[in-house]
Amino acid sequence: MNKENKMGVMPVKKLILTMSLPMMISMLVQALYNVVDSIFVSRIAGDSIKAGEYALTAVSLAFPMQNLMIALGSGTGVGINALLSRSLGEKKFEKSNSAANMGIHITFINYLIFLVIGLLFSASFIQRQTDSAVIASYGATYLRIISCCSLGLFFQMTFERLLQSTGKTFYSMISQATGAIINIIFDPLLIFGIGPFPMLGIAGAAIATILGQFLAASIGLFCNLKYNKEILISFKQIIKPDFDTIKEIMFVGFPSILMMSIGSAMTFMINLILGIFSYTAIAVFGAYFKLQSFFFMPVFGLNNGLIPVLAYNYGARYKDRIKQALRFAVFLAVSIMVSGTIVFQLIPATLIGFFTSSADSSADLTAIGIPALRIISLSFPVAGLCIALGSVFQAFSKGFYSLAVSVGRQLLVLVPVAWLLAQTGILNLVWFAFPIAEVASLTISVILFRILYKNTIATL
């Protein structure tokens, strides 16, 4: 336990790639699941010729609440990750063990919150966004299953964070990728009733999702118990709350939870704005979120690999390694997002075509989707730079900086600008709110990074 962790000695570029590539690969698989899941949902048959489009719209309307679950679990994971990695860098091993066990304690509480929400508020949440009985029925069914059975989701994220915090990102990749693959396999089986499986429609999509999450959580637990020797998971410690450790985890994690929750609020409000134009516009927005994940997810994987590296070297006071890691991560993030912009500019019709199931829905989705993808993707390179800078805020326990950036981007700029542009009655103008918001986000990020660099990194 007294040996230097690889995060303090391995060459920085190799370390970033070693830490991040497994998570980037697993998140690419996760992105593939997101797209495939929506493709299958868009092909659900029903009484209406637009049943598939209605189902896709319903999943899009459920997404803000689904994203809120991810925000709570992932934000808690950020707090666990930062405290655990920093404690290892400082050689405070009892503290790192406490961070791991209290992280699991908090995770179970997170699940109980969404169990209650799923049971009581699923239908009203969807109905608030649509007056279509068909879409409301689809959405409530999907959201209730996802929320009430979210135990697998929460524990999957926590166990993966524990592996990432100690540099065991390969096992984190195995956990996440296996869960996503199981999801992809069971999607068509349960949605369409292939072979011995019942035809469950949109409920089948939800069940396939939770099956993958529970399997991923099980694999994550196994890998932590067998391979993650730098922490000790103890049931006795898990059930006995250590309020000091919980406070430290949530001090870092809560701003991240708020930051990602703001994303849910933004999506909810953008859905309402787009609903002024048509349900098809909402479906396009949902399809965009699935497609952009092919580029955002790898950058988030890079971000997840970078945070423990920065936190560890901050704890060990290795200033040069921090600077090298950040420069390399910024280069990788921006490069990935530039490639995303190129793809969205060149083949938008092909991309949006994945979500069409009939000639009628194809014409509507394509007409709205092509300009939407091209306009929004202009913001990708700027977003990549902002994500990389945000990892510094999280690693150095400056989560409120990330929160300020998120509030500025999504609530103070994106939603108001989208609403103002919607008053013109021209849907294509609404999509320009996204590039405008990213420029604002970059401005805030650079200002806060300069403050952090001067007061924290430069003084090491």
Explain how this protein is built:
- This protein is mainly alpha-helical and 460 residues long.
- It has one domain.
- It has helices spanning 12-41, 51-89, 93-127, 133-148, 151-165, 169-192, 202-227, 235-239, 243-275, 279-315, 319-346, 348-353, 359-376, 380-395, 399-422, 427-430, 433-457.
- It is globular, with a radius of gyration of 21 Å.
Number of strands: 0
Could you describe the largest sheet, including whether it forms a barrel?
Answer: none
**In one word, what is the shape?**
globular
Low-confidence stretches: none
Mean pLDDT: 88
Radius of gyration: 21 Å
Task: Tell me the structural class.
Answer: mainly alpha
Query: How helical, in percent, are the residues?
Result: over 70%
State the end-to-end CA separation: 25 Å
Following the backbone from N to C, one meets helices and strands in this order, namely: HHHHHHHHHHHHHHHHH
The proportion of residues in beta strands is under 5%
- The tally of domains stands at 1
**Assembly state:** single chain
Number of helices in the DSSP assignment: 17
Q: What keyword list fits this structure?
A:
83% helix; 17 helices; 460 residues; mainly alpha
Summarize the entry for a quick read.
The chain has helices spanning 12-41, 51-89, 93-127, 133-148, 151-165, 169-192, 202-227, 235-239, 243-275, 279-315, 319-346, 348-353, 359-376, 380-395, 399-422, 427-430, 433-457.
